[in-house]
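quick one, 950 residues, struct below
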Amino acid sequence: MPSLEQLKNFKASFGKIANEGMVLAQLDQPPDDLPLPGSEPAAPVVPEAPVLEPEESTPGFDFDFADLLGSDPESLPPLPAAEPTLEETQAVDLDLPDMGDAALAAGFSDIADTPDVSTEAGDDTADSDALFSDMDDADFASSFPDLPDMDVDLPGFDAEEPLAEEDFGDAFSDMPGGNPEEGEGEGVDLQSGDPFEEFSPDGKGDALNGGEGTGDAGEGIPDIDFSMPDLDDVLGSDAPAGFGIEPDADLSEPEEVVEEIRLSEGDFEKLRETIANYPLNLRIAIEGIIAEQVIAPNLMSSLIKLLVRGGSPKEVASLAEKILNKSIPIPKGFEKKTGEELEQEQASFPYVFVHKFLPVLRLFLVIALLAASVFYLGYTFIFTPLRANSIYKQGYELIPTGAYTQANERFNRAFRIHRQKDWFYRYAEKFRDERQYIYAEEKYDQLLTYYPKDKKGALDYAGMETYSLQNYDKANRIIRRYVLDYSVDDKEGLLAFGDNNLLWGEQSEAEKDAHYEDARSAYARLLEVYGWKDDIVERMLRYFIRVDNLGEVLPLQQYFMSDPKRRKISAPTLAELGGYLLDKRFEEVRGVPDEHIGQIGGIRDVLLQAVQAAPRLPEAHYHLARYYNRFGNSLEERQTLEIAARAFDVAPEEKSRRTQYRLNTQRRLGEILINSREFFAAEEQLIKGIGIYEDALDRRLFTRDPQFGRLYADLGDLEYFTRSGNMPRALEYYLQAERNGWSPPEMQYRIGSAYYQQGQWAPALDRFFAVSTAIPPNRRLLNALGNVSYMRGNYFAAQGYYNRLMTLLDTERARFPMLMPNDRPEHLELAERMMTVRNNLAVTLEALTRATGNRSYRSRALGLYTESARAWDSLTRNPTTMIRAGAGDFGSPGMNLAFLNSRNTLYPEPDYEPQLYIQIDKDVLEPSVWEELVPQDFRLTEVLEPYLPQ
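---
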């Protein structure tokens, strides 16, 4: 049962058929109203016949629009239809709920407001049979009282008898109210969807047309001739213009003969499928044209044929625009073709190529492109860096093994594969640590070639040139070119430039003033640009220390020491400040002393603060040890030096000054160990210091220096005094010390003594003579000169040295009233020297006798023999028993050579040679520190076999 709302909608739409309201108004008749259910019945109104879907069992019949509209259908005004605008058509959602006969009941004029117009049947609505159940012929005729009679002749049927519903068979199976599932031809279904969905203007397939049908129920139904010849008379001349024709159309022209539209079942299905595939706005326009617009038959025929043929949306839209006189936009996605054309097109090579091959090819190309991109990116940014990094690492690990060439080759091979900046740093630093500075410079040059603005690389390169190679000029060029040229006031660059020139001035005496001025300018520029910063002020303090400006150093010392928590100063600068103040405090004054020396104080506090700030800083411990040495605290000095030596071992080498401090530490520690009679530990420290010194010479950190030659001299003293008989080794160290500029008179004497003990009389005489010109001759030197002169055969020179020695000994003997050699060691030494010099002088005089033939020399020689023999007797006689020592008495001072020589003079022996006391002193100094540390194991009176000249 249809609802009241549906009846109202149908009522409204029914009244709009054929402009009923307008016609009744022109005839001055009141509008008829259809009674609603439950109200008083009104005159029946014949509703517009719904479009019926043809069935196979329904016979066709002809439905001629010309007969319906009269002889001149173009003279009728068009039915008003609410056509959707372009905006409304585009705004319609394609996915809207289906509308059934309720939309039909609302009238075709409201089709633009309908959310969706379905082109397929199947939407069931309420049964509309009730609308016609109460309407009889009289009511229907009363609705149009003035219209002429319309004769409809249906052969085989009685016009007086109403047609039963079942007489139409399945012809109205799709009418509202029918149920397709209950069987064919049972009732009329008003909910079959769009009433014009299966409309067929040519009558083909329509249940109401007079065409040929295939259904059983329609057999024998003749064609219906439906005509309204008096319609023009009814409407009169006042019919509204524009009823489907142009206003200025010439109606007198003969009408074009249009072929009758007939649709088969297949054509009807094609028409439905074609419309269903069109966009919504075009479907609405087509349905409006078919359902509401009264258009020329030729245009309707063209439209139907185009739809049956499956015309493209563009073609149909063009025809619809011509009919409706408005634009109908077609989306690009609805440019579709017919099934046959689509099949033909799909079977063509271009279609297969474009729609099947190209998508696969495009997918393949996309995948290939992605794979190639992934491969390229992976190879470029993952595999290549990893491979190069592996080769870099292999070369880097070869550097500590000494394979520097192979390591550099690995670097070059990895560099050609992939350049990595970090490996330049690593290789350069490793080569620098291994002291392979050529390779290190090569790496830094390559780094700055490819990365010229790399400040870290430039500063590291300049630092190596400054502190390791002392190539200050090159360091200045690097800093200027790669740092200051890009940023004139770069803080790190100016600091490095000032530090380099500060060290350059320290090493270059000739140009130190110019370099110190460059350093001062850099620091002053920093103070001007960056203000009074502690690190810049600290550099200025170091500058004043280097130029020995004590008046500026003391205020800056007070500046930093007054508030050490707020004002930061580095431990190296504190250590340097403490060492400078220590040197100024105890320096040897030459000329006018500095007026600020009396203000020096707090040296120990400065050094202790440096030690606390950096316990591993070796300079702080070194200067503190020097401070303890100045004040005689040997225990603290030794402990501090040992700490300093360990700190120097682990500290990196920065500059030549640190190397100098380290060498001084090694030497001073060796001397302390020697004084403590720890000779083996002292030898170890001295050998270590010599290794450091020779390495520094090889690297040209500084030239040979006499103060470092003392290392060789001290090591030679250990060999000379503590290891008897190893004179060649001692002589080697002494000569090394001499080559380094350390050659004091005592060492010259030891060199001569070493030559003497090896029987090398000529170099020994040269050394002894050089000593005699450097220091006043003493009894030790005169004895050595006399002996070596005699050994060389220079008897007159030996006579002169012995005579001078005897005079010196006699003068010394005169200071003692009585010699007591058994009680006092100094008396014993004096007695022995007097005994040996008399014997040696007598032997020299005998040689002169043989050489000159002058017998006076022999006479004097006999007297000297007698005095020497008497002195030997005094030294060897037992002071208690007064018994002379025998020849086998080993407690005696050797043999009485004077007695033997005098006996040979009186009783000559054929092969006898006069004997000489050949022993000389090991040290020329009196007293000798070494003789106190290592007591001599020989005496001058010891008889030795003379060395043969070599």
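The CA atoms of residues 44 and 133 lie 10 Å apart.
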